[in-house]
Structures are given as C-alpha cells and as structure tokens.
Amino acid sequence: IHASSTVLPLTRGSLRRTFVVGSAAVIRFLTVLLVVSLGGLAHAQTLPTASLLRTSTAEGVSPGLGGSIDRLARAKLSALGVVDVRGTLALDLEEVQLALGWLGESPECFEPIATENQVQMLVVPRLDQTGGSRTFTMTAYDSRDQRVWQVVRRMEAGSNDEAVLDAIDAMVHELFDVPM
Hints:
Distance between the termini: 64 Å
Largest sheet: 6 strands, mixed
Strand content: 25-35%
Shape: globular
Number of helices: 5
Helix content: 40-55%
Order of helices and strands: HEEHEHHEEEH
C-alpha cells in the first residue's frame, strides 16, 4: 500500500486569511454566547422575589408532612420560573402574626413580613384538618400591588398524605395562573 500526500505551500497571505476567518468565527460565537448569557441573566433579574412561609399544620396532621409540603412547594415554585424563590421562613403564618401583632391574611399583615425578608411576594401554605377531612390552602401576597389571593383544595375523609403532596403542582400552577 502506498500513501501519498500533497503539501500545500503556506504563504503569509494564506495564513493571514485563515487567522482572520477563524478569529471572526470565534468572535461571532463569543458574541452569541454573551448575548444568550445576558438574556438569561436579565430574565432572572426581572422575576419577582418570593419567600415561602413554613406550612401551618393543624393538630392531627402527620409529623413531617409540613416539611414535605415546604420542600415540594419550593421546588415546584422554582421550577415554574415565575418567581425567584429566596428561601423558606422558619416560622409559619400564625407564629409570624403573633410576633408582629397582626391577625388575618391582609396586605397590612403580609407587608411587614415581605419587607423584613426583602422579597416582593410571599407564598403561605396551610393544611387544616377537621375530623377526617382536610383543607389545603396556598395563599399568595404580592407587595407590588398589595394583592392577596389563594387556591384551596378540600380532600375527603381518609385522604392520605400523598394526596396532599400530589395536589401541590396543580395548586402552584393555579396560584400563578400558569397552565399545566
């Protein structure tokens, strides 16, 4: 087997053209990469900031269910991409209300909480249990327009903890008016 190769002479002009063409392609690539990166950064900066209050749970609710709700709700909120979740507060709404001396779920009650935590929005989950039935509520507050709204799910007697956790995804979508 005989292999042959052809050697092309390189001149200053051919090297210069190769370098110019190559460097122009690199510059275009880096420019596109920068624009895409800045676009994503600008999008992240425009999202309203939010904190999740710890889930309030009624007596008789399984130990640990509130923490599971908190973790799953935070993950679903982050994945939805409509708010920049800054954290979960260590207190539930009732504990915060007692500390601040406010009762109810009004803008006047929520505003100091949002201000103290340097966020624009609050998400407040609550799980109530009466007899065997459960009521799962997710309340949202937006300090930008002083609006409070909520989504509620009633679960039949005998519903298990998984039913509560399964409801979170749909509730978060509904709370922020994002189709599933």
